[in-house]
Design a protein that fits this description.
Layout: E1 11-15, E2 21-24, H1 26-33, H2 37-48, E3 51-52, H3 54-63, H4 68-81, H5 86-104
Parallel strand pairs: 2-3
Antiparallel strand pairs: 1-2
Helix pairs in contact: 3-4, 4-5
């Protein structure tokens, strides 16, 4: 029996207030296809003027076994390498810091 080839597709899940598409499933795409994350981020920005769903990207990485701290350090470094304009890059970094604070809080039940 032939093995099925693994695939992962990006899915548009939202639009930013200024009209840019937001794509989920970026971590699965990165993992499945072996594309460097900075390249994926660059392609989204340069070709589609789009962003990944940052929360989905970070939580998917954590669910795959990486620590939250390590994930945030890695994603921030890849954002710096992706070629975003400085003001956009700085806003993303601030947002990732806030996301890290929210995700690191203990869950109260």
């Amino acid at each position: 029996m032939a093995r099925r080839k693994k695939t992962a597709d990006l899915k548009q899940v939202a639009v930013t207030p200024d009209g840019r598409p937001v794509f989920a499933n970026c971590y699965a795409f990165y993992e499945t296809h072996g594309m460097p994350l900075s390249m994926l981020l660059s392609l989204l920005w340069d070709r589609m003027n789009a962003f990944p769903d940052w929360r989905d990207l970070v939580t998917s990485s954590v669910r795959a076994g990486r620590s939250l701290e390590r994930t945030l350090v890695t994603v921030k470094a890849e954002v710096c390498d992706a070629g975003y304009p400085f003001d956009v890059r700085d806003g993303i970094i601030v947002g990732l810091d806030k996301l890290g604070e929210v995700l690191s809080r203990p869950v109260v039940r």
